Amino acid sequence: GDSEYYLMFGPDKCGGTNKVHTIFGSYKTKGNNLLWKKEPAFPNDKLTHVYTLLVKPDNTYEMYIDQELKESGNLEDDWEFSKPKEIDDPADKKPEDWVDDAKMADPEDKK
């Protein structure tokens, strides 16, 4: 919807998907939702279940369904809170005359 939120958590059955969402709403830029890289499934039955998300001060988390641990990890690893400092260029190549030595002589150096 249009409501602002900082955390959306719970089961979502939409079409063919059957997963537990954990989405952080970004407080820095509106409309930038941080989606969970994992997609754990929830029980596919007609029973009531208890979903628990435990976010710890050391930037780790645990997700439980009916008090049983289903997922855990590190917030920085499983959501893109910060963009990579350097973006890898797969087409990037070293020049033919590149020297990998830790130290090399400078031909223009004069003592």
Give an overview of the whole structure.
- The protein is mainly β.
- It has 1 helix and 6 strands.
- A 3-stranded antiparallel β-sheet has the order 1-2-3, with no helix packed on it.
- The longest helix is centred in the C-terminal third of the chain and has 4 residues, at 75-78.
- The model has no long low-confidence stretch (mean pLDDT 82).
Helices and strands, with pairings:
Layout: E1 7-14, E2 17-25, E3 33-34, E4 51-55, E5 60-65, E6 68-74, H1 75-78
Antiparallel strand pairs: 1-2, 2-3, 4-5, 5-6
Keywords:
elongated; 3-stranded antiparallel beta sheet; 111 residues; mainly beta; 4% helix; 6 strands
Mean pLDDT: 82
List segments where confidence is low: pLDDT < 50 over at least 5 consecutive residues.
Answer: none
Strand order within the widest sheet?
1-2-3
SSE string, helix = H, strand = E? EEEEEEH
Distance between the termini: 71 Å
Biggest pleated-sheet summary:
3 strands, antiparallel
Task: Tell me the number of helical segments per DSSP (H or I, 4 or more residues long).
Answer: 1
Over all CA atoms, what is the radius of gyration?
23 Å
The class by helix and strand makeup works out as mainly beta
Shape: elongated
